[in-house]
Amino acid sequence: MGLAKMTKLVDLWLSDNNFTGKIPDFISQWKRIERIFMMGCSLQGPIPSSISALTNLTDLRITDLKGEQSPFPLISNMKSIKVLILRNCLIQGEIPEFLGNLATLKTLDLSFNYLTGEIPASFAGLAKVNYIYLTGNRLTGQVPEWILSRNKEDVDFSYNNFTLDNSSPIECQRGSVNLVESYSAAATQFGGVNSCLKQDFPCQDTRLQYYSLHINCGGQEITIDDRTDYEADLEARAMFYSRENWAFSSTGNFMDNSVESDTYIMANSYALHNFTGPVSELYRTARVSPLSLTYYGLCLMNGNYTVELHFAEIVFTNDSTFTSLGKRLFDVYLQENLVLKDFDIAADAGGAGKPVIKTFTAVVKNHTLKIHLYWAGRGTQAVPDRGNYGPLISAISVDPDFRVRHKKVKSVMMAGILAGAVSVLLLILGILRKKGFLGRKISAYKELRGVDLRTGMFTLRHIKAATGNLDPANKIGEGGFGPVYKGLLSDGTIIAVKQLSSKSKQGTREFVNEIGMITALQHPNLVKLYGCCVEGNQLMLVYEYLENNSLSRSLFGDRTMKKLKLDWPTRMKICLGIARGLTYLHEESRLKIVHRDIKTSNVLLDKDLNAKISDFGLAKLHEDGNTHISTRIAGTIGYMAPEYAMRGHLTDKADVYSFGVVALEIASGKSNTSYMPKEDCLYLLDLAYVLHERGSVLELVDRELGHEYSSEEATVMLNVALMCTNEAPSLRPMMSQVVSMLQGQTAVPGPVSGAGLSTGDSKFKAIRKHFWESRSVSQSSTTSTGACSDSFVAKLDRGESDIVQTNAQNKQ
Q1: Residue 627: exposure state from Cβ atoms within 10 A (0-12, 13-18, ≥19)
Q2: 521 and 567 share one domain
Q3: pLDDT number for residue 455
Q4: CA nearest 556: which of 808, 807, 801, 799?
Q5: DSSP state letters, 269-298
Q6: 104 pLDDT exceeds 60?
Q7: Looking at residue 505, what is its pLDDT?
Q8: Given 341, 374, 406, which residue is the final one in a domain?
């Protein structure tokens, strides 16, 4: 009761102790108190209603209470509150509206409670709050749009039960918003979203099956004992990061430290010779998290696994210095089961700077392994300095306890492209050679029987049944590969069948390449390949059906084709979707792919107008360590980067260039290939640089939009397009940087004026002079572009060109 008399108390710290019992009601007598810290104790809830009397509180942190569930505490009178952390406090019910009206609030953490209902509408007023964590609750309804467009600090809504709508994301964001496992099972059962958004993080494609996992947390890729490859984990700051076979989700920010940017990868402060054994290299680095860190092993074969978690306390010391006072405690869960409570790395290893490996057995039943590290508020927080607490892990090793029979593993990872022996591709190559497509004379064939459709092989009988015997009425397009038919499988799946035409300019090499590439890649913004048919003299690819055909048709369709009305938000979504797909190809996929033929006709749109990159027949692997690929030139005039078109010098920056052209076309509604070989005419790209030089780049925005577009977003998209089309590849951004700029997370530096012009300098100077000397630019359809004859401007407005006209005739 002595504490009750301390009426002049300003600060109270009760963290990291063994106090028990309920939080007393007499705290209401502390009228002057400004800060309360009750973290990592053994106190019981509920938080007493008398806390409402503490109107001077600016910082309230209560976590990890024991006992029973209770309603949200009465804190509406705390008008000066800046930090409100009520984490794992057994709070149930809906989030009260008054929280959105706390004008001084900077940090809000209500993670790991039992909160239900929707996000209060008043939360729109929290758009300026630095950190919002609602992780691990039971929230429903829709995720507000203001959260998805947030570009400040962290917002974490992961592990909830939200529902999908038209504005919902289809994949997890890698920026400042975390939505891992945030949507209910019912909301995601019909597909269309990335598996990372679904509860329990299911395998995106169960045909991909792995039987081991090795990660060097926070470090480079290394090989141990010349046999075990540990994958790199170098994402410096991400709330979510994903590879094909693993991912991680991190939550929280380090509190009260004075640094502008937190560090989430720690370097070893000890000499490496202090670490013995062949695995010592694993302890050069470690990944840390302020609150919650979850690693996922994805698409694992079901069965029992041995899981080794490598730890070493590489921050604190054993000597008599101040850094020896640090104490790190956290919990470890494996498949949602607590396996380590208040784990102290240094104590378990016999001192700081020493490795310790904790070994467990895990059962994988649904192809996903979850390793969760959680800080329960215990240990030191300000020693040796603020920001050195929370989970820390050096490496993860997962190996099967069962015998792996490689012949039965349904793997389409494309490792065979790198090693030269993917069983699926070998099978296809063998069939092609047997049937004469690879040089032999075509002879009589026996129909393939008993083919397991799940392996991606379709029989001709199935294809004909699905497409009405390739009925011309079901023909939906014609491309360089051949005709495309719409079909319906017996299970109700709608498909698109691409048939290799005898007149096709593409051959068996492109056919095999497309199968190999696309089956190795799984992403919401890449078209999904169901399989192929190699039978008789037929070569066919079976894809998911995309209801809205190609982006080219939507943008440039003439009177013979139905042209979609694409509003500005849809154009932004499409542009961002293409950028995300290319980011995956270039930076995130285990295989680094250069597409080589990015253009509007190779971007397909689903029923919700989500963009999906297609046609991988020309794609090339870009192996790590190679600065570029020297290859034969293949692609489409108007979209090819100059260094590739002239010298065959291929890098992923060639795709970046092509994306820039496509982004320009999306914003303008005009085709870059609309070219008239006259002295007074320009490519659309050239015109864009002229307008940028003049400071009127927004004149390019599609006139059909009228004033219904965001001038700020349009300026960003157009400037990003000009950056991407810079003549110098080194000055073009990476696609992940493009995504960040389009999302408004990073500023857009100005492009190098004139660097992308395809015309000569003298011509540009003349055109630039023409622009600057003109007193005004008419808004009429014949002069708004200002750089070409009226006939050319009309062509641009209609999006006509030889290629577009051909596509229109072929109904692609």
Answers
A1: exposed
A2: no
A3: 34
A4: 799
A5: -S-GGGS-STTGGGGSEEEE-SSEEEEEEE
A6: yes
A7: 45
A8: 406
Assigned token pair, 659: 């994306």
559 Cβ neighbours under 8 A, 6+ residues apart? none
**Phi–psi pair at 726, nearest 5 degrees:** -60, 140
CA angle (677, 680, 683) in 5-degree steps: 60
- Phi and psi, residue 372, nearest 5°: -120, 125
In this structure, are 502 and 569 located in the same domain? no
Per-residue model confidence (pLDDT) at position 405? 62
Q: How many domains does the chain have?
A: 4
Position 723: which residue type? M
The Cα–Cα gap between 525 and 544 comes to 12
Q: Cβ(505)–Cβ(479) under 8 Å?
A: no
Beta bridge partners of 789: none
Q: Does pLDDT of 408 surpass 50?
A: no
Cα 394 from chain centre: 24
597 is annotated as an active-site residue: yes
Closest of 614, 637, 648 to residue 683, by C-alpha: 637
Please, which residues have CB within 8 angstroms of residue 247's CB and are 6 or more apart in sequence? 180, 196, 201, 240, 241, 295, 296, 298
Q: Left (φ > 0), alpha (ψ -120 to 50) or beta: where does 99 sit?
A: alpha
Is the Cβ–Cβ distance between 247 and 239 less than 8 Å?
no
Q: Is the pLDDT of residue 477 over 60?
A: yes
The CATH number given to whatever domain includes residue 798 is: 1.10.510.10
Average pLDDT over residues 34-47: 91
- Write out pLDDT tens, residues 281-321: 889 899 999 999 999 999 999 999 999 999 999 888 877 67
- Is the Cα torsion angle 549, 550, 552, 555 positive or negative in sign? positive
The position carrying tokens 């502390």 is 30
* CA-based radius of gyration for the chain: 30
One domain for residues 324 and 261: yes
Determine, yes or no, domain membership for 182: no
Residue pair 470/464 in contact (Cβ under 8 Å)? The answer is yes
This prediction has a pTM of 0.56
How do the residues of the chain divide into helix, strand and coil, expressed in percent and rounded to 5? 30, 20, 50
Measured CA to CA, the distance from residue 572 to residue 583 in angstroms comes to 16
Amino acid identity, position 426? L
539: enclosing H helix or E strand: strand 538-544
Structure tokens at 459: 């029989």
Q: Which of 754, 781, 752, 758 has its CA nearest to residue 682?
A: 758
Residue 292 to residue 290: CA distance in whole angstroms: 7
Both tokens of 714, joined, read 């349009």
**Is there a single domain that holds both residue 391 and residue 419?**
no
Task: Compute the distance between CA of residue 166 and CA of residue 178 in angstroms, rounded to an integer.
Answer: 19
Q: 631 and 488: one domain?
A: no
Which residue among the candidates 154, 331, 597, 797 is catalytic per the annotation? 597
Q: What pLDDT is attached to residue 276?
A: 62
What pLDDT is stored for residue 534 in this prediction?
Answer: 76
What is the distance, to the nearest Å, from the Cα of residue 350 to the centroid of all Cα atoms in its chain?
40
Q: Is residue 263 located within the same domain as residue 337?
A: yes
Q: 625 φ, ψ to 5°?
A: 100, -25
User: Under the phi-then-psi rule, with left for phi > 0, alpha for psi from -120 to 50, and beta for the rest, what region is 694?
Assistant: alpha
User: What element of type H or E holds 544?
Assistant: strand 538-544
| CA 458 – CA 542 distance, rounded (Å) | 8
Q: Are 489 and 533 in contact (CB under 8 A)?
A: no
- In degrees and rounded to multiples of 5, residue 396 shows phi and psi of -130, 135
pLDDT for residue 482 is more than 50: yes
Do residues 286 and 217 lie in contact, with contact meaning Cβ atoms separated by under 8 Å?
yes
Q: What is the mean pLDDT of residues 683-695?
A: 84
Task: Give the residue from 77, 69, 184 showing the smallest Cα distance to 86.
Answer: 69
DSSP three-state, residue 288: strand
Q: Tell me what the mean pLDDT of segment 450-477 comes to.
A: 74
Mean pLDDT of 701-719: 92
Residues 6+ away with beta carbon under 8 Å from 141:
117, 118, 119, 162, 163
